[in-house]
Amino acid sequence: MSYTPYMASPTEVLRQHSILTQVYAWMTAGLLVTGAVALFVVNSPALLVAIFGTRFVFFGLLIAEVAMVWSLGAALGRLSAGAATALFLAYAALNGLTLSVIFLVYTRGSIASTFFITGGTFGVLSLYGYTTRRDLTTVGNLCVMGLIGFLLASLVNLLLHSPALYWITTYAGLAIFVGLTAWDTQKLKRLSAQAGDETQARQVAIYGALVLYLDFINLFLLLLRVFGRRR
Fold first, then answer.
1. 0.90 cut: is pTM over it?
2. Alpha-carbon torsion angle 113, 104, 214, 79, nearest 10
3. What pLDDT, on the 0 to 100 scale, is given for residue 2?
4. How far apart are CA 215 and CA 124, in angstroms?
5. DSSP bridge partners of 53
């Protein structure tokens, strides 16, 4: 199914390209912050003990992440550009604390190779979302519903420890985030073309960076299940 894209003026097209450039730049900055914090933690025995020594601290950080990303998404339209940017980078740093665990589970070589695989996959999917004339709204809505099931199944498997359910959720999750990456890019393309002023442009840029950052991180973690070599 094709759809008629929003016909932007030349000025709006330039603004759109500028905003999307900012989206990918801030997303990259977020990934760099996450990676730097994760590497710092894994090379600090004291921090490793503090974070992973008790489940209370680790799961407390996970809850804080969920609360922060929900709050940022809900309040983005009311925040100044500087505050939104600071919160996004703070979330990326917090995510680095918990994601440092992957260095304890997987070899660094497999983490690096999976990161590059994720980068290539993400790039292709985002390019498709940007260039396709097909309306991906239905795909995106199905993926959102699938994401709810994925999260519930993952929580259940924390109790069951079922290898079969683990791999079902892995490949289902990959399919979900493949669809979300393309859909989110198309959605951001529309939003960026309609940003009215610089304040709205910066808000769209940070919102887009957060959304695509989450897509990238989840793709990476799911692909790591498939390609990662355990220690």
1. yes
2. -130
3. 47
4. 13
5. none
For the segment 199-205, the average pLDDT, to the nearest whole number, is 89
Q: Where are the domains of the chain?
A: 10-227
The backbone region for 230, taken as left when phi is positive above 0, alpha when psi lies in -120 to 50, beta otherwise, is: beta
pLDDT in tens, 67-93: 998 888 888 778 888 899 999 999 999
The residues that bridge with 106 in the sheet, in sequence order, are 230
Q: What's the whole-number mean pLDDT along residues 157-183?
A: 97
- Block residue for tokens 């940070």: 206
* Greater pLDDT, 114 or 55: 114
